[in-house]
Design a protein that fits this description.
The protein is of the alpha/beta class. The chain has helices at about 25-35, 95-110, 130-135, 140-145, 160-170, 190-200, and strands at about 10-20, 50-60, 60-70, 85-90, 120-125, 175-180. β4 (about 85-90), α2 (about 95-110) and β5 (about 120-125) form a beta-alpha-beta unit. InterPro entries: P-loop_NTPase, Small_GTPase, Small_GTPase_Rho.
Amino acid sequence: MLPTMEAGDAPVVPILFVGDSGIGKSTMLSRLAVGHEWRKPLPQLRDLDQPYSFNIKLYNRPYRFELYDTASPTNYTLLRPSVLVMCFNIGDPASLENLKTYWKRVVEEHYNYDEMLPVIALGLQRDVRNREDYDGHVRSIASDTENGTDDAPLNGRTFVYPQEGLRLAQEMRCDRYCECSALTGELCREVIEDISKTAALTTTEGGAKSQGAHCNLM
């Protein structure tokens, strides 16, 4: 993340990551812990250590970010986050669909989803796509079988296109749409900056809720 510093009287900003289990949230939080030091081994973060706290300086002032995920030892529905990050696995189309059919309902029930709470949609494990995937090529069940894999879903794909994630984020009225690979570090810098800027703006009078569409493909 950004350089650690003494927090002092820095405002505390709780940030909650939600999404299916096993989609890479813990790896992403580990990446946040090492920040831009891409060659540094990712630490093993324990659920009992939550919140994972970081003291940073942004906009010439200090902030303290406290990160939680749904494996929090405290029931995550009792938290009052200032920023909500809704995560899915790019290599698991069902986890994207679950954002709309399950997780959106959860956050609407427990959080102020449609009003002042800024929401970021985040696609994890971006490295599962290859160059052909960005060129519009769809891996078919037949081609997967020829390559020795027969576990492709019925829709013929084992990944989510960027446009699909962006479209769902827009349907859910998310403020931002991001993708990254915590394993390789691809686009993590940009995601960290987006989350940090959104979190910092929640401490201002205007808040961080977007006044327009901020969902864009990177």
